[in-house]
From TrEMBL, chain A:
Key words of the record: Carboxypeptidase, Cell inner membrane, Cell membrane, Cell shape, Cell wall biogenesis/degradation, Hydrolase, Membrane, Peptidoglycan synthesis, Protease, Transmembrane, Transmembrane helix
Span of domain Penicillin-binding protein dimerisation: 60-246
GO MF annotation list: serine-type D-Ala-D-Ala carboxypeptidase activity
Location in the cell: Cell membrane; Membrane
Family recorded in the similarity comment: Belongs to the transpeptidase family.
Domain Penicillin-binding protein transpeptidase stretches: 298-658
Main location per the UniProt record: membrane
Protein name: Penicillin-binding protein 2
EC number(s) on file: 3.4.16.4
Membrane protein topology class: Single-pass membrane protein
Region ranges (Disordered): 678-731
Keyword DNA repair: no
From TrEMBL, chain B:
PROSITE patterns: FTSW_RODA_SPOVE
Protein name: peptidoglycan glycosyltransferase
EC numbers for this chain: 2.4.99.28
Catalytic activity: [GlcNAc-(1->4)-Mur2Ac(oyl-L-Ala-gamma-D-Glu-L-Lys-D-Ala-D-Ala)](n)-di-trans,octa-cis-undecaprenyl diphosphate + beta-D-GlcNAc-(1->4)-Mur2Ac(oyl-L-Ala-gamma-D-Glu-L-Lys-D-Ala-D-Ala)-di-trans,octa-cis-undecaprenyl diphosphate = [GlcNAc-(1->4)-Mur2Ac(oyl-L-Ala-gamma-D-Glu-L-Lys-D-Ala-D-Ala)](n+1)-di-trans,octa-cis-undecaprenyl diphosphate + di-trans,octa-cis-undecaprenyl diphosphate + H(+)
Keyword Transmembrane attributed: yes
Length: 731, 399
């Protein structure tokens, strides 16, 4: 036949067939290896990815819990608005991507079709606002201000509006009962940011895109409780977003209700009286500067003395918290954060700090006792105190001779405390402090809670400042370069101060201690710290963490978690000293005391009133007025920046708040029917079986109610009308 | 050369009964390569299940009948089987005589595609719509034609005993005959098919014993051609995009990279045992486009897991392994070359198809033999199986 081998192939073909076979099987093994790699080695990863591919979550936001006052009156609640939303997934299924439907919808809502379409487009880096930043599977709100008529039109002709819903939805509202805005205490909400979502992703309470988050005030402190848990329905969807089935769903839990210790009525009084006091004092001329008082800001705290619960807290300037609802406009936000508005977002009761002035003398008196002095010994109240070539004058250079520390409080005698402060400074070693220097004045200030947070349940409380040796040192280290640059020997006052500070600003000087003893110099305190201290003197020495939140009530009303008052310490003096302080402060409102002229007709025997006035000098500004007062049940502290003297600026306002609490008229007659809160509110509001909480009606505060004869505005006097303070008693 | 008759065995034993005839040691049935036949059938039936799973919910495709594609795939398999039997009946040697006619018909068909008779599906103008829901992809049959026409030319003189190896002139002629239909298919443009055909040509040349220069030259030409095609802009944008997406699937996950990403997710999520038939999320959610055809392997990966997908690889392996044996054991070069062409075709097409779903090959519109839905492909691969069987049946019983 031929020379071809039996098998029909030459060796060349034979070899090549083997090559082909090897090639073919290497291809198959490559596939097998890759298959193993994807399915076995990385299978888990892809399985997760497939899951997220298929499940889409639709979120029903939880209704945020209300914030109630102590009697159940809502300070923050939700109002239902008619929200018209569009479902993108429905619209995108249409041939024209829903354009026709949206145009029709725009016609009903009276909007421009383009505006409606812009609202439901998805945000990305290239899309300017408005755009939807949430999940595309979430119905996207087109408007939350639809009228009933518009909603009915959409609902009745639902076949014309596929994918469009008109439903009632909850929107935050701050109703300001009785005109009590409670702005800074309530705080505000704003939408959650991407960063926050990312950060809270693996925590216990992750955010949802639709969440609003408390940014300030109790909205922030109790955000977790108020927010509740959004309901999540998980749909299995195909690649076009068509729903194929429903998988595990979490029913939502509405936010809990927060009952606060705020009494809306008292809050309204406090807000009104603070604003009124500031207005009044602006009409008075400051004798030192010769200008009317600026009274640029102020704060008042009304606290339960025995628990630290805050009944009212107002800060001026304030604002209407409703500006935040539905997203604040850029204009409003700029206004709230501008210098011209003097930062109304600040809660001056916990974020405003100023030198203390004479309200600080309770600290100094206690420090003297701790240093070994007897409270009831006699201390010389001279008209001035000299140290070297410097002379420190008493207020209006009035002397009272040898007096007890109690009387030193009554007359607010500076020189008694100058001397004590100076003596202690010398005892501690003066400029060369001893190793075991006691620093009683500074230590006592800290032990009273100054220079630290009170622990109030409001965010961003400031600490104030106690200018002790350590502070002096660190402050000098931080500033000496600037001082040394600016300072010039024999230059202007400022230059001279800078020069001295540059050289030895780290030293605690004698005059530092002398000033400190009367709450002047570098010391800074906050109204809430002061209220905590005076409440402690009132209650026998316990420093409570002030609280606004009183109880968290579950949405069904079944679970109530009370927020119990907690103490962060005790006053560092014995019971006898506290009694002595108490007696001294009581004498302040009695004849001869610095606040007596503001408490004419006060029923001192029935409701013993205690007070301390303060007028703090602030470099380059008018004096800050302080007024710290307490009765057995309540502590009220008011401060007005650039407001003059304590009793002068705040006296009537504070008295009016007490009058409202106790139902007193100017003559001191008590009418319990008119009393807002003759005793602190002990019980929680009544919870109905269905979980709702009844709210009593709140009448707006009528400032004339405390007049003996409401029609005679002019005659505000009591039985012993006092027109203006005796000059020497002014503090 | 021995006898030219194809179904010859029975003639030698006219006296035996029917049953005896088919069970006799030398009967056609006994001499069939059963592993190939059973593997092909198994692949087709697995394919039927996978196609069913992929199309049950696709109401836009199945006209509301969830069994539509299942039925059609089984029907195609039946027709394929018949075509195989027909091919074995006729015998590859008979077909050898008919090759010029087949070649002519093939050229006419692919030319027809370029006329208004043709239809564009997925960017490739590669279809002739017959009507009644049927359409034909002639390039599938061209693969067979190329194998047969080249084998006929290259093996003629060798099988006649005139040469040890095909001479240069013959090789050149064979290449020219292959190049003509390939060129036309390229114009469609159906690049995937052209790639498969190029690999077929390479396999055929290798097995024919053509000189190394031709083989190396062809590989070089292939590389050069690829470079020219890309640089001269002969590729459509969708083709370039596919390659870009292959290189970097995250580039545009919603666009061209979508297929590869979703395919990989589907397969990866299957794990060892898979989600179970009809239970794959990616499949029921229709995240993978073209899943019943080009991306059918993703259904296997997701729903049948490593075990099911591995079984498909194993069955393909059995077919290729048996085919290699057939290529080695036949006495004629013609049979060897045809078998080698089929091996190259099946191996490369399977590798490309599965490889693209696994993300190791760029996306090209090629069906997975037996498994993918599609009549033309099914018929062509069953004819190829018929050819392999015929080569095996007709080799002498003992050397």
């Amino acid at each position: 036949m031929s020379n071809i081998p039996e098998t029909g192939r030459t060796p060349r073909v034979q070899i090549r067939l083997v090559v082909i076979q090897v090639l073919v099987f290497s291809l198959l093994f490559t596939l097998g290896g890759r298959l193993w790699y994807l399915q076995i080695r990385n299978g888990k990863e892809y399985a997760d990815e497939a899951k997220s591919n298929n499940i889409q979550q639709v979120v029903q936001p939880a209704v945020r819990g209300s914030i109630l006052d102590a009697r159940g009156v809502p300070l923050a609640d939700n109002e239902t608005r008619l929200v018209v939303s569009a479902s993108r997934t429905e619209l995108m299924k249409m041939k024209d991507d829903g354009k026709a439907v949206l145009t029709r919808l725009a016609g009903v809502l009276g909007m421009k079709p383009q505006d409606v379409m812009n609202k439901i487009r998805l945000c990305d880096s290239r899309t300017p606002k408005p755009c939807w930043n949430g999940s595309p599977y979430q119905p996207i709100p087109v408007t939350d201000k639809a009228t009933t008529q518009q909603a009915l039109t959409i609902r009745e002709a639902s076949e014309d509006f596929p994918g469009i819903t008109a439903e009632l939805a909850a929107v935050r509202r701050y109703p300001a009962p009785g005109k009590a805005r409670t702005s800074q205490v309530l705080g505000y909400l704003s939408p959650v940011t991407d960063d926050e979502i990312e950060k809270a992703k693996d925590s216990e309470s992750p955010f949802l895109r639709s969440d609003q988050v408390g940014r300030s005030g109790i909205e922030r402190t109790y955000d977790k409780e108020l927010r509740g848990q959004a309901g999540v329905t998980r749909y299995e969807v195909d690649n076009l977003g068509r729903v194929m089935g429903q998988t595990k769903s979490d029913p939502g839990v509405a936010g809990s209700t927060l009952v606060t210790s705020i009494d809306a009525r008292v809050q309204a009084v406090a807000e009104y009286e603070l604003a009124q006091a500031m207005k009044t004092v602006r009409g008075e001329t400051d004798k030192i500067t010769g200008r009317p008082y600026e009274a640029d800001s102020g704060a008042v705290v009304v606290m339960e003395s025995k628990t630290g619960r805050v009944i009212a807290m107002a800060s001026q300037p304030d604002y209407d918290p409703n500006v935040w609802v539905g997203g604040i406009s850029a204009k409003d936000y700029a206004a709230l954060t501008s210098k011209d508005s003097n930062y109304p977002l600040l809660n001056r009761a916990i974020q405003g700090q100023a030198p203390a002035g004479s309200v600080f003398k309770v600290v100094s008196a206690s420090a003297a006792v701790r240093a070994g002095h007897d409270f009831n010994d006699k201390y010389l109240c001279s008209s001035s105190y000299s140290m070297g070539n410097r002379s420190f004058a008493n207020f209006e250079s009035q002397g009272h001779g040898p007096i007890t520390l109690g009387d030193a409080l009554k007359y607010s005698c500076n020189t008694v405390f100058y001397r004590l402060g100076h003596q202690e400074w010398i005892r501690d070693g003066g400029l060369k402090p001893k190793k075991d220097a006691k620093d009683w004045f500074y230590r006592t200030a800290r032990d009273f809670g100054f220079g630290g947070e009170t622990g109030i349940d409001l965010p961003n409380e400031v600490k104030g400042r106690i200018p002790d040796r350590q502070w002096k040192q660190s402050f000098w280290e931080a500033n000496k370069d600037a001082w040394c640059k600016q300072g010039r020997k024999g230059g202007t006052y400022v230059e001279q101060i800078a020069y001295e500070s540059c050289l030895e600003g780290n030293q605690l000087k004698a005059y530092d201690s002398i000033n400190f003893a009367i709450g002047q110099g570098d010391v800074l305190i906050t109204p809430i710290q002061l209220a905590t201290v005076y409440a402690a003197i009132s209650n026998g020495g316990t420093l409570y963490d002030p609280t606004v939140g009183k109880a968290v009530i579950s949405p069904d009303g079944k679970k109530v978690r009370e927020i119990k008052p907690q103490a962060h310490g005790r006053l560092p003096v014995d019971a006898k000293t506290i009694k002595d302080l108490d007696k001294g402060l009581r004498s302040v409102v009695e004849p001869g005391g610095t606040a007596a002229w503001r408490f004419g007709g006060w029923p001192q025997d029935k409701i013993p009133m205690h007070a301390k006035t303060g007028t703090a000098q602030v470099y380059g500004k008018q004096t800050t007025s302080w007024f710290a007062t307490y009765t057995r049940d309540y502590t009220i502290v008011m401060t007005i920046s650039q407001g003059g003297t304590g009793s002068g600026a705040s006296g009537p306002a504070v008295r009016n708040i007490y009058d409202a609490l106790y139902g007193l008229d100017d003559a001191g007659n008590q009418d319990l029917k008119r009393a807002l809160l003759p005793q602190p509110q002990k019980t929680l509001p009544k919870i109905n079986p269905d979980g709702t909480i009844e709210a009593p009606a709140v009448k707006p505060y009528d400032p004339k109610s405390q007049l003996v004869d409401p029609n005679a505005e002019e005659d505000r006097g009591g039985q012993e009308p006092l027109h203006g303070p005796p000059p020497f008693l002014r503090d | 050369m021995t006898t030219r008759t194809s179904f010859s065995v029975s003639r030698y034993a006219p006296e035996r009964g029917a049953l005896a005839r088919i069970t006799a040691r030398d009967s056609v049935l006994r001499r069939l390569d059963w592993p190939i036949l059973l593997s092909s059938l198994a692949l087709s039936l697995i394919g039927a299940l996978l196609v069913w799973s992929a199309t049950r919910g696709r109401t836009e495709l199945n006209q509301g009948d969830p069994y539509y594609f299942l039925f059609r795939h089984v029907l195609n398999t039946g027709i394929g089987l018949a075509l195989m039997i027909g091919t074995v009946w006729l015998g590859h040697r008979t077909l050898r005589g008919a090759v010029p006619i087949l070649y002519g018909i093939s050229i006419l068909l692919i030319l027809a595609v370029l006329t208004p008779l043709g239809a564009t599906i997925n960017g490739a103008h590669a279809w002739i719509v017959i009507g009644g829901g049927f359409s034909l992809q002639p390039s599938e049959f061209v693969k067979i034609t190329i194998i047969l026409v080249m084998a006929m030319l290259l093996a003629a003189k060798v099988d006649a005993g005139d040469q040890l190896h095909p001479d240069h002139g013959t090789v050149a002629k064979a290449l020219a005959l292959a190049a003509l239909p390939m060129g036309i298919v390229m114009l469609m443009p159906d690049l995937g098919s052209v790639m498969v055909m190029a690999v077929i040509v390479l396999g055929v040349l290798l097995a024919s014993g053509a000189s190394n220069r031709w083989v190396l030259g062809l590989i070089g030409a292939g590389v050069l051609g690829a470079v020219l095609v890309t640089t001269l802009g002969m590729l459509d944008e969708y083709q370039i995009n596919r390659f870009a997406a292959f290189a970097n699937p995250e580039l545009d996950p919603a666009g061209v990279g979508y297929n590869t990403n979703q395919a990989r997710i589907a397969i990866g999520s299957g794990g060892l045992y898979g989600a179970g038939l009809f239970k794959g999320h990616q499949t029921t959610g229709q995240f993978v486009p073209e899943q019943q055809t080009d991306f059918i392997f993703t259904v296997a990966g997701e729903e049948l897991g490593f075990i099911g997908a591995g079984l498909i690889l194993a069955l393909l392996g059995v077919i290729l392994w048996r085919a290699c044996r057939i290529a080695r054991e036949t006495t004629e070069l013609y049979g060897t070359v045809v078998a080698a062409g089929i091996i190259a075709w099946f191996a490369f097409q399977s590798f490309e198809n599965i490889g693209m779903t696994l993300g190791i090959m760029p996306v090209a519109g090629l069906p997975l033999p037996f498994v993918s839905y599609g009549g033309s492909s099914m018929f062509a691969v069953w004819v190829a199986i018929g050819l392999l069987q015929s080569i095996r049946v007709q080799r002498p019983m003992s050397a």
